[in-house]
Amino acid sequence: MATPEFITALRHHVGTAPLWLSGVKVVVLDQRGVLLVRRSDNGLWTLPAGIIEPGEEPAVTAVREVQEETGVRCAVTHLIGVGVTAPTQYPNGDQAQYVDIVFRAEALDELQPRPLDGENLETAYFALDAYPQLPPLHERALRWALAPRVGGYFG
């Protein structure tokens, strides 16, 4: 995952100390199923996701991250839920934990997704009954998105 410039600037001051950051996960659905990406850093299939830039609306982040990572244009339909990730330590020693804002979105075109930003090895739509194993918080986000419940889920 590319590190946003504002985090690089913060790291100049705080070193590897824990940072509390905000991020989004996006469940993009269309007639083909759910849009997933296979990350280049760990090889795992996940939902498109990313860090919210300072001053950026979370739903705008969701649309931007999906397009930057896959080339797919989407529209956020609603907030699904909010949770918190476990603390993370990256290979370089940086520590972070994220408030995790999950959105549901629909694809606006039928383009074949493709990895665009170097963060992912592959992108693809998967049928909802035949997608690869996802990390637990991504699985939870997909489960939340497909549930009939009205309103948000929390942690």
TrEMBL record:
<dbReference type="GO" id="GO:0016787">
    <property type="term" value="F:hydrolase activity"/>
</dbReference>
<dbReference type="InterPro" id="IPR020084">
    <property type="entry name" value="NUDIX_hydrolase_CS"/>
</dbReference>
<protein>
    <submittedName>
        <fullName>DNA mismatch repair protein MutT</fullName>
    </submittedName>
</protein>
<keyword id="KW-0378">Hydrolase</keyword>
<dbReference type="InterPro" id="IPR000086">
    <property type="entry name" value="NUDIX_hydrolase_dom"/>
</dbReference>
<feature type="domain" description="Nudix hydrolase">
    <location>
        <begin position="19"/>
        <end position="148"/>
    </location>
</feature>
<dbReference type="Pfam" id="PF00293">
    <property type="entry name" value="NUDIX"/>
</dbReference>
<dbReference type="InterPro" id="IPR020476">
    <property type="entry name" value="Nudix_hydrolase"/>
</dbReference>
<comment type="similarity">
    <text>Belongs to the Nudix hydrolase family.</text>
</comment>
<dbReference type="InterPro" id="IPR015797">
    <property type="entry name" value="NUDIX_hydrolase-like_dom_sf"/>
</dbReference>
